[in-house]
Description:
By secondary structure, the chain is of the alpha+beta class. It has helices at 2-27, 44-60, 63-83, 86-111, 113-119, 178-181, 223-238, 244-255, 263-272, 282-298, 304-314, and strands at 123-130, 135-137, 146-158, 161-174, 189-197, 207-211, 216-219. A 5-stranded mixed β-barrel has the order 1-3-4-6-5. β2 (135-137) and β3 (146-158) form a beta hairpin. α3 runs antiparallel to α4 (86-111) and α10 runs antiparallel to α11 (304-314). The mean pLDDT is 80.
Amino acid sequence: xxxxxxxxxxxxxxxxxxxxxxxxxxxxxxxxxxxxxxxxxxxxxxxxxxxxxxxxxxxxxxxxxxxxxxxxxxxxxxxxxxxxxxxxxxxxxxxxxxxxxxxxxxxxxxxxxxxxxxxxxxxxxxxxxxxxxxxxxxxxxxxxxxxxxxxxxxxxxxxxxxxxxxxxxxxxxxxxxxxxxxxxxxxxxxxxxxxxxxxxxxxxxxxxxxxxxxxxxxxxxxxxxxxxxxxxxxxxxxxxxxxxxxxxxxxxxxxxxxxxxxxxxxxxxxxxxxxxxxxxxxxxxxxxxxxxxxxxxxxxxxxxxxxxxxxxxxx
Length: 315
């Protein structure tokens, strides 16, 4: 009896242990898929490098660079066709399109009607759009006070010809009506008579235009630009009672309005490599949009209204 009882107890214990082990096995997944470590996706890196390199070559204008770009595009197309590589084909297409766009823009600036007239220092009549605020230049000795303004010529007449163009120029204004130019809002279209001259080597301007007359507004800025100008005026008034440097720096850092920076302060920005802080760049827009969208989400804005908030922030 004792032996039978011991055997029964042992068999019961073994059965219970088997049930427990089976239950534990059933609770664990039978096929555990271990995901491999994900490596960094660098497929966009060659496209970015190709775009930057092609933009540099296309806007450089050197024959050696253009020949190298053409040879690279031809060889790349051949290799992409032989290897049937979609990534290499995309790199070649990005290179060709970016370099081509840069070459077209460079030719328009350096070899267009405005550049040809500037080569002959022609006296012209032009309609131009103001692109930036005037920067004052303090006169020294026999040199009078002046202002430089970035603009774009849209219609030009001179040397017996008339052209519809869109060429960037640097407008140099001087004379007794100089103060009137500081009241012209950005985006205005003006009729200007002046003399063209060639820009400095490596400049992104088609010409330098010098004038001594008063501004003649042909067309006011668009409604969007007028709204922007109201915001800029409000910011200037908000810091009007500050010292000179803060009064000039706040609009420059917030809105890219560098009209209040004197020559010494602008030179300090260039010497320290901080001129990007006064530009309305993509990074600044990204930070602005990130803040606006975060606030909009926090107050409950959703869907298409978020896109409208973002668009309003960019405008």
